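Re-run with default settings, no changes from the original entry. Doing this only to confirm the output is reproducible before filing.
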Amino acid sequence: MMTIDKGETMDAKTTGKFICRLRKEKDLTQVMLAEKLNISNRTVSKWENGDGFPDITILPELSKILGVSADELLTGEKIKRADKKDNAPDNKPATNNLDNFFQITYVVALFIGAFSALLGGVTEFYSIWAFRILFYTHWEIMFAAVSLFSLVASGLIFSVGVTRLKISYSIAEIRARVIKKIWLLSLILSIFPVSFILRLIDCFLPMINVWLIAIAFAVILALVFTLAYKKISD
């Protein structure tokens, strides 16, 4: 590791904040960056907290991943180059278009998924409260069918957005962009199937208190998704 004396502590903190900012701009977690460099995520955490500099042997690869030079990493800021002739970024327009397309597909998938969850969830929970017979009314069949169609459409639209990212991004970069979003979308898309399963339980196993199961399942699901989201946000 590069040694630093007391006078360089502030430089280490500046470099650490710079690494942290660049990492987040690349949509990378500490764990993902550590995996790319074959080091522990605790080492990345120490850099970002200003407790040391990256090893000199790691600097070239780290600079490449974060898109800056080794000098810029150590100084903690981007160096303005007067001799830079290319005003237009290399392949930025292409990647920006892909990112924009992905964001649009995600928002559309989220909207359709929320519609499926709201329509299907309300329909099934109302049916649990009002009817003991599955598909007792024609509107339950119709709403369930529309909810299922919307759920499938939401998943397909999101998949198209993810697939398009493969044009310019590696698997690790796609994973970094997708992982947080897919958890939220999955949570929303699970509402209708879960409510329908509870409806089946209520119809065929009437001795079971389906409302207690629903509350317990909601608590467990919320806990799992919260812990998972916190984990991938590190």
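The chain is about 75% helix and 0% strand. Residues 30 and 111 are 30 Å apart (CA to CA).
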